Amino acid sequence: MIGLSTYSYFWQHSDRVPEPLTLIGAFEDTRAQGVDLFQICDYGPLEWMSAAELRNAASAASALGLTIELGTKGVAPEHLRHLLELAEVFDARLVRSMLYGPESRPTLDEAEDWLRGSIRSFESAGIDLALETYEQVGTADLVGLVERVGSERLGICLDPANVVARLEQPRTCVELAAPFVKNVHVKDFAFARQDGWVGFTYSGAAMGTGLHDYPHLLTTIRPREREINEIVEHWLPWQGDAETTIRTEREWTRITLEHLRSTS
């Protein structure tokens, strides 16, 4: 299933725009674009919303016919317990996370111990935990961790754009992670020369115009065949003013959705 996420609305949620979009507003816009899946990912307000506000958001998503996934950072046991509670509120079947959280940077051995203890609750709840590929942990190390824990509910959220920062090849990341992928983050990316030709900027690009070999990902991962959700994200730099930035962000979403639908 194709989905949008809070990263699809990064600037529209931001306090840099005159009227930031609410979470329920993003749900409504997602449904208006014919999308049935939304991933609430690294969305700060989720951590301090009241129980009533959480129930209201979950009810809005349900009324719109949206499937919800959650995304966070960190694998500390108490944090994952909290995410399971939130997953119950939203009836989410997948939680995406990263090994490092705001207050914890475990070694691989520590992360393994934590995950061995936590994953049983995910198994009992029937919820997947997908650890994202990113620059702070090598893909081979992440895959090895998932293999050692050895739970069908533990897998990988594949984002090959992230690993370029540690000089990994995106195609290699895709191939290493392939057997364990439970979620895909979809965004294109590219390098551009900085002004004065001094160095490069690595950032997002409109889908299909950058370096992401998405046909290779589709062939290798087979997400539609394996029922792995593809979640749209953007790495859109600020475009100088709110109006231009929001317009460009919405255009990138349209382009990405068309690209994904054309390959289904």
Strand arrangement across the biggest beta sheet:
1-2-3-4-5-6-7-10
Spans where pLDDT lies below 50 across 5 or more residues: none
Tell how many strands the DSSP assignment holds: 10
Q: Helix/strand/pairing class, anyone?
A: alpha/beta
EC number: 4.1.1.120
InterPro entries: IolE/XylAMocC-like, Xyl_isomerase-like_sf, Xyl_isomerase-like_TIM-brl
Domain Xylose isomerase-like TIM barrel: 78-254
Organism: Microbacterium natoriense
Can you put this structure into words, describing what you see?
The protein has helices at residues 23-32, 51-63, 77-90, 108-125, 139-149, 170-177, 214-221, 223-226, 242-262; strands at 2-5, 37-41, 67-71, 94-97, 128-132, 154-158, 181-186, 188-193, 200-205, 229-232. It is α/β, with parallel strands linked by helices. The protein has a single domain (2-262), classed as Divalent-metal-dependent TIM barrel enzymes (TIM Barrel, Alpha-Beta Barrel). The strands form 2 sheets. The chain has an 8-stranded parallel barrel, surrounded by 7 helices. It is globular and about 50 Å long. The protein starts with a strand and ends with a helix. The model has no long low-confidence stretch (mean pLDDT 97). InterPro entries: IolE/XylAMocC-like, Xyl_isomerase-like_sf, Xyl_isomerase-like_TIM-brl. One of its GO terms (molecular function) is lyase activity.
List the helices and strands and how they pair.
Blueprint (H helix, E strand, L loop, with lengths): L1 E4 L17 H10 L4 E5 L9 H13 L3 E5 L5 H14 L3 E4 L10 H18 L2 E5 L6 H11 L4 E5 L11 H8 L3 E6 L1 E6 L6 E6 L8 H8 L1 H4 L2 E4 L9 H21 L2
Parallel strand pairs: 1-2, 1-10, 2-3, 3-4, 4-5, 5-6, 6-7, 7-10
Antiparallel strand pairs: 8-9
Helix pairs in contact: 3-4, 4-5
Keywords: Carbohydrate metabolism, Isomerase, Lyase
Pfam families: AP_endonuc_2
GO molecular function, one term: isomerase activity
